[in-house]
Amino acid sequence: MNDENSPLALPNRLIHEPARLAILTILSSCEAADFLFLQTATRLSKGNLSVQLTNLEQAGLIEITKEIIDKKMRTTARLSKRGKGEIDEYWKTMDAIRQRMAANERRSRRKPAVALPARFSIVSAD
Question: What is the pLDDT of residues 6-39, one digit of tens each?
């Protein structure tokens, strides 16, 4: 979809939400992360992080495991195979959007293709 006349691909709305994007970005950089690490890294409240993890798990993007260690519950999250594919696709879409916008910016800076009468001058912002 690099054709300038084709519609832009839109990012996955489930992933694009800032809290979920933060969680998925963290999980894409490690094998797994526990709840406390995710809470510290994302700065989300316990309740918000819990809700976002549940949403991502229900969408099949992450897998959550719970285990008791020293009489305390430990919740760990990791990207699922689908989640890895979805986050990769998200970043490809964002890269395509950035490239399209950069190309549009370069085109808008070009000098006009028509010859202007001598009394007009073009001042370049460069």
Answer: 677 788 889 999 999 999 999 999 999 999 999 9
Q: Output the pTM of the full model.
A: 0.76
For residue 25, which phi and psi values (nearest 5 degrees)? -65, -45
Q: Is residue 41 part of a domain?
A: yes
Residue 90 domain-assigned? yes
Tokens of 43: 């700065």
Residue 100 lies in a domain: no
Q: What is the dihedral of CA 6, 7, 9, 13, to 10 degrees?
A: -170
Calpha distance 40→38 (Å, rounded)? 5
Assign residue 69 the CATH number of its domain.
Answer: 1.10.10.10
* Residue 78 · residue 45 · CB < 8 Å: no
